From TrEMBL:
It comes from Luedemannella helvata. Belongs to the purine/pyrimidine phosphoribosyltransferase family. Its cofactor is Mg(2+). GO terms for molecular function: glycosyltransferase activity. The keyword Glycosyltransferase applies. This is Hypoxanthine phosphoribosyltransferase. Pathway: Purine metabolism; IMP biosynthesis via salvage pathway; IMP from hypoxanthine: step 1/1; Purine metabolism; GMP biosynthesis via salvage pathway; GMP from guanine: step 1/1. It is found in: Cytoplasm. Its main location: cytoplasm. It catalyses: GMP + diphosphate = guanine + 5-phospho-alpha-D-ribose 1-diphosphate; IMP + diphosphate = hypoxanthine + 5-phospho-alpha-D-ribose 1-diphosphate. InterPro entries: HGPRT, Hxn_phspho_trans, PRTase-like, PRTase_dom. Keywords: Cytoplasm, Glycosyltransferase, Magnesium, Metal-binding, Nucleotide-binding, Purine salvage, Transferase.
Amino acid sequence: MGEGTGASGRTVVADDADIERVVVSDEEISAKIDELARQVAADYADVDSVLLVCVLKGAVMFMADFARALGRHGRPVELEFMAVSSYGQRTTSSGVVRILKDLDRDIAGRHVLVVEDIVDSGLTLNWLLKYLASRSAATVEVVALVRKPEAVKVDVKVRYIGFDIANEFVVGYGLDYAERYRELPYIGVLRPAVYSRG
């Protein structure tokens, strides 16, 4: 079992033996999502609808909870999904982006809000924002649950940020290592021994 202090300073215990410590608890995630949704609902009060673009697979947990929170704050949303790859089985972004699943609709004239699980190097997100802008969206903004300021390699404008965390390899709440740990309800640091085995 891992144990650590969450962003609020409370001691939290990790349920998984592969987790060194929890950095953001499920309670903190829930509270932050509500806060972000309230802010987004206010900022987009004058538009008909917001098109949320989820970056699969990592952002799917965040997208689901964030969309529901926006609904509770009276903001109608539509959902769209993209899948891009720049990691493979690695623990850091390669910066080479492949589209695995493109948008299913035209976004010209739409107010797009990209829903990201994590911003680390910023390389993938930077590419994605340029790609979406080329599709003639009215606006393109980003909401990210977590950001690693120390890992940023390119300056990417992220309008809404949940948590800034240290440059450690984290999993949980959609974040994975080799497709594992996405189902954990919190975000925790993966023990280095796990990804240095192979």
